[in-house]
Amino acid sequence: MSGFGLELGDDVIEVRDWVRAFARDVIRPAGAEWDEREETPWPIIQEAAKIGLYSLDFFSTQWFEESGLALPVAFEEIFWGDAGIGLSIVGTGLAAAALAANGTPEQMGEWLPQMFGTPDDVKLGAFCASEPDAGSDVGAIRTRAVYDRGDWVLDGVKTWATNGGIAEVHVVVASVDPELGTRGQATFVVPPGTPGLSMGQKFRKHGIRASHTAEVVLDGVRVPGSCLLGGKEKLDARLARVRAGERAGEQAAMRTFETTRPSVAAMAVGIARAAFEYARDYAREREQFGRRIGENQAIAFLLAEMATRVDTARLLTWRAAWMARNGKRFEQAEGSMSKLVAGETAVWVTEQAIQILGGAGYTREHPVERFHRDAKIYTIFEGTSEIQRLIIGRAVTGLPVK
Q: Domain Acyl-CoA dehydrogenase/oxidase N-terminal, which positions (predicted)?
């Protein structure tokens, strides 16, 4: 782990403070409204685009920052502001990561700018992997991609897609050879306006309500051969290796999730920190039986545990982000560790924040109720806690844990 440090560079600190100010002044005041509306907060996304926060340049600059900490630091601040609005701002990043992980430089140059649009004409991207019968089990993906006279034809239904159906560009994982399971899958770009792609059910959710989540229906969607990420020659060579019994490398969807886990963990850290700070401040001011409740050991000890868990989650997240940026292999599933601990920390800390506020915390008069609803998804999406434990268990034992 030589080279890993906890001191943030001046550039990272400057961006952190800039993002924190936007989260404080623009995102946080709008959180409750857009949670109640359960609509995509286009005006907030546009404000983020106008200052350069929602832009390809911002995401790529932070992604390539040498320490690897810039993106998780920025994401923590955004989600400290509000998770629903935060996910509406950064949700395109998952599609962008899938494109970057699987595409050629030419494909990235063509499609990445179209995912973001411009400050005056904001666009979104959507990554479509999960299906009604294939959530954590990506090997059960049924969406098919069939090669036909130079084009690819996609048929199937995707679900739980952030920005699904309202995105300009959809990135879709499909099976080209079902007999090979996950090793027979590939990733495709579906350009804007392509016939056959439509939005199915829009989900009404427990939390992150300002973030759009929906089904994506693919009915005879025909895309040019150039929309196969990585190209057909690379795909054919990989499939040939698999059929010959050789190693084929990482599966497309899993490659995307592995690269984004530290960033997802940082989102959860932001929610947990917001809940801790609100509960701490409440405990400093709220009086019961003639003294502030923070003077009671029961409350002070609980706040101490909350603070410790938030810092623990952040440190695991920073380690994983640094390793990913510096080409260090996750020998002990460090990416999954960060996602597991941060997600479960967010759920626990937000619940304790409600407890500290008592009955008031259970109402929508205080944001901790919303923080708790928003936190729960971090033990579910992009790999449930159970899947993270499975990955970690396999890594630490070296055994095929089932």
A: 13-115
User: The tokens of 335 are what?
Assistant: 């990416």
Choosing from 77, 215, 344, 382, the catalytic residue is 382
User: Is CATH 3.90.700.10 the right assignment for the domain spanning 10-122?
Assistant: no
Region of poorest pLDDT, from 33-37, 161-165, 199-203, 238-242: 238-242
Whether the CB-CB separation of 317 and 327 falls below 8 Å is answered with no
Tens digit of each residue's pLDDT (9 = 90 or more) over 273-288: 999 999 999 999 999 9
Please identify which residue in the block is written with the tokens 């991207």.
Answer: 125
382 catalytic per annotation: yes
Q: Which residues contact 262 (CB under 8 A, 6 or more apart)?
A: 68, 71, 72, 317, 318, 320, 321, 324, 335, 338, 339
pLDDT in tens, 304-350: 999 999 999 999 999 999 999 998 999 999 999 999 999 999 999 99
Per-residue pLDDT band for 22 (boundaries 50, 70, 90) equals: very high
- Could you give the count of Cα atoms lying within 13 Å of 134 in the half-sphere of its Cβ? 19
Question: Is 252-397 a CATH 1.20.140.10 domain?
Answer: yes
Q: Which residues pair with 172 in a beta bridge?
A: 128, 188
**If we measure between CA atoms, which residue out of 384, 354, 222, 220 comes closest to residue 278?**
354
CB burial of residue 253 (10 Å; 0-12, 13-18, 19+): buried
Closest CA to 352 of 285, 282, 286, 400: 282
Where do the structural domains in the chain lie, given as residue ranges?
Answer: 10-122, 125-244, 252-397
- Average pLDDT for the chain: 94
Q: Which of 64, 167, 163, 63 is nearest to 114 (CA)?
A: 167
Residue 339, beta-bridge partner list? none
Q: Tell how strand 169-175 and strand 125-128 pair up.
A: parallel
**Separation of alpha carbons 95 and 84, rounded Å:** 18
Count of other CB atoms within 10 angstroms of residue 288: 11
Contact 329, 293 (CB under 8 A): no
Residues 252, 182: Cα–Cα separation, whole Å: 8
CB contact at 8 A, 129 and 173: yes
Q: What is the 3-state secondary structure (H, E, C) of 142-194?
A: CCEEEEECCEEEEEEEEEEEECCCCCCEEEEEEECCHHHHHHHEEEEEECCCC
Q: CATH code for 125-244?
A: 2.40.110.10
The per-residue pLDDT for 165 is: 98
How far is Cα of residue 115 from the mean position of the Cα atoms in its chain? 16
